[in-house]
Write a structure and sequence with these properties.
This protein is mostly beta strands. Helices cover 12% and strands 54% of the residues.
Length: 364
Amino acid sequence: MIMKIFRKTIIALFSVLGLFTATQASAQKLLWSADFDFNFDNRENAQLSLPSYTLFGARLTPQIGIGWGKSQHSLMIGTDLTKTFGRDTRFCENPELLLYYNYRGRAFGATAGIFPRKKLLGDYSGTIASDSVRFCDKNIEGLLMQYKGIGGYIELGIDWDGFYSVEEREKFRIFSAGEYTRQVFTCGYTLSVYHYAGRVDVPGVVDNIAVQPYVGAKFEHLIPLDRLSLTASWIQTFQRDRRSGEKMVMPYGGEVRLRIEKWNFGIDNRLYIGDNLMPYYNRYGSELYAGDRLYSMVSNAHKCYNRTEIYYQRTWWTNAIPVSLHAGFSLHFLAGKMATSQLIQLSVALDNHRLKTNRKKKDN
């Protein structure tokens, strides 16, 4: 079955290439890209009575397509090939088709179809999407609209996660983010509206809404550091299990984030004080909550969770073929106990535009 899907994807890729060749005399351009992601995420959570695990794998995402109208419009097709190391699979796990239309104007942009999550502008926190989810669910199936103006941006999209059927629940997420920066100060928000409905033989709907406004400032101009930023945010949720008939619950909390960086080494500290943000986790688990599980471990007696990451982060060959590395070691403090995690991420982004731009610079 997997090989059949892969063969169909390859045939579709060559079909697009053939279409481009047949219309080469017009204003269309051949577009292509290939992204590689390597991920090592080791969680040691035994002291917090949570499962410990290691997510170790790689992903390759080749794409090809046609661009027109000075490359404002493009139609892309590709595949997302993921291999989790250690799993006994002959090829890879469930290759996913990428198929989308993309428009990029001077200020407004829109993408529709199945497209990579990296197109998002918003910095959605771990309360909405954990590091593991970001790697395992790299693509969005739906629509994304974005506007970039002087000093900021705003985006709105929908990601359809599940189709109503006998086997699967209807699930979709409406998300949005915005940010405005003036000199050293920044303000913005992120929003997630998750609709977790039933399937044919399982009625009921669960609403999970989270909004996170924030303000921040950057101070690296005051002292010799590459980065010194402080951000404070408020996380407000609205959750209701309609099937149970219970009243809506509204857990909330505040989070302060401090980042310090020099010579590619840095410290990223997040301090959360507030309620358990995942009150229905024991009922629905990760099907309802995509955020970091540690935000569900805050009881009435312990309302404080702190994560401190010490990391090295660097990008090489930015103008040609950017290779980015992030290696970090995190300490998680919760309820008087400590857990640790290690994260190594390597990414390579290759496309025709970067190579063309770099070649022109060399020629000049």
